[in-house]
Amino acid sequence: MIARGALHVSSAVLAEKLGLDPVLARKDLAMAGVPGKPRRGYPAKDLEQAINRALGWDNVIDAALIGVGSLGQALLGYCGFEEQNLSIAVAFDSNPGLNGLTIRNVKVRPPTDLPRLVSRLNIRLGILTVPSSAAQECADLMVRAGIVGIWNFTNVQLSVPKGVTVQNVDLAQSLAVLSHAITQK
Amino acid sequence: MIARGALHVSSAVLAEKLGLDPVLARKDLAMAGVPGKPRRGYPAKDLEQAINRALGWDNVIDAALIGVGSLGQALLGYCGFEEQNLSIAVAFDSNPGLNGLTIRNVKVRPPTDLPRLVSRLNIRLGILTVPSSAAQECADLMVRAGIVGIWNFTNVQLSVPKGVTVQNVDLAQSLAVLSHAITQK
Q1: What residues contact B164, with CB distance under 8 A and at least 6 apart?
Q2: Of A155, B20, B156, B163, whose Cβ has the fewest other Cβ atoms within 10 Å?
Q3: pLDDT by residue (tens digit) across A151-180?
Q4: Rounded (10°) angle between helices A22-30 and A11-18
Q5: Does A121 touch chain B (CB under 8 A)?
Q6: Angstrom distance (rounded) from CA B143 to CA A25
């Protein structure tokens, strides 16, 4: 909307575009702390800034990726994260054949280097793209190193200590729901 | 579990591994139609086959991908789909610079070719990886061509006719939740 020249945006319009309940959208937007004007809505750029600040997107977030297989390489090559200020700063893989390679400007290192690098670079976000069988072990390694948020692309339900947030993206499960639906048609 | 030599699996164990309610897991597994044995559970291979059949994974599902940008290319390069018998058979992009290129064995074609190819190849599943601004238009094109399931990687809430299933994978939203959580810590 900003790109199209909007100076103000209303919670009602945003709710409609996002398929959300208008009351919920209004309450959520109120948390951004930007005063809205009756009938006109929020000043669009101020609101965008406030949301970015609330999401931590006003600063670059460095992430560590474990598992430089097919999905890991795909994520390393995905430019869309830059828009959200996510930078994959380091990548790890236990395959000695990958160690030392540079993939999309990120050097692949052995997992034994993880604790030292995560601590030195003060990395708090980990991206988990290892095979299921290694998922919990690698998550434990990340948590011990000080990572407090894990973006989990495996199909494993990770157990993590309180205070660590896990966000699951299970592509296989998502595809399962879809292929089941079209198989029934 | 099968890879580790399990001959039988119980709904209770599966529920625990997946973090699901045991009663729900038992009811879901009953739908696979494989008789279980008290105390031993289901014969593991029979259950796997029945689940694959229920999900439509016993046959290769051909998919059409629209949007060969960074994410589209990442998905074209992701080998994990093969395990689930998903094959990206055709790819489309409106960028003339990409047309005719072959990326990971898939030739990129202009969207004007979509209706003919989707119909000829009897493709029912579409993968949407275009910029948000083109999402609805491309979804409409897919639906008109006969696609009944859309795997939507854009952040747009698509409106589709009844009978078309949309499965959303919003990486940006998922990352937003996670980066918000770690920003608060």
Answers
A1: B143, B147, B148, B149, B150
A2: B163
A3: 999 988 899 999 999 999 988 889 888 988
A4: 120
A5: no
A6: 30
Task: Give chain B positions within 8 Å (CB) of A118.
Answer: none
- B127/chain A closest Cα distance in angstroms: 10
- CA dihedral sign, ordered A149, A154, A157, A159: negative
How many angstroms separate the CA atoms of A50 and B26, rounded? 46
Is the minimum CB–CB distance between B161 and chain A shorter than 8 Å? Answer: no
Q: Do A170 and A177 meet the contact criterion of CB atoms below 8 Å apart? A: no
E-strand spans in A5-130? 8-9, 42-43, 61-66, 86-92, 102-103, 106-109, 125-128
CB contact under 8 A, B175 and A84: yes
- Amino acid in the structure at residue A167: Q
The strand pair at A106-109 and A102-103 is best described as antiparallel
The b/e string for B81-107 (b: 16+ C-beta within 10 A; e otherwise) is: beebbbebbbbbbbeeebbeeebeebe
Among B20, B75, B175, most A C-beta atoms within 10 A, so best to mutate, is B175
Quote the distance between the C-alpha of residue A64 and its chain's center. 12
Please report how the helices B11-18 and B22-30 are oriented relative to each other, as an axis angle in degrees rounded to 10.
120
| Tokens, residue A98 | 């990958």
Cα-based angle B9, B11, B12 (whole degrees, multiple of 5):
105
Residue type, B154: T
Give kind and range of the element (H or E) at residue B142: helix B132-145
Size of interface A-B (CB pairs under 8 A): 129
Contacts of A174 in chain B (CB under 8 A): 151, 167, 169
| Model confidence pLDDT, tens digit, residues B123-171 | 999 999 999 899 999 999 999 999 999 999 998 889 999 999 999 998 8
Q: Is A167 on the interface with B (CB under 8 A)?
A: yes
ipTM score of complex: 0.78
Could you tell me the two tokens for B149? Answer: 């399931």
